[in-house]
Amino acid sequence: MPAVPDYLRISNRIMTEVESGKLKPGEKLPSIAQLCELHQVGASTIRQVFIRLEALEVINRRQGKGVFVTDPKTWLRKP
Question: The whole model's pTM is what?
Answer without folding.
Answer: 0.88
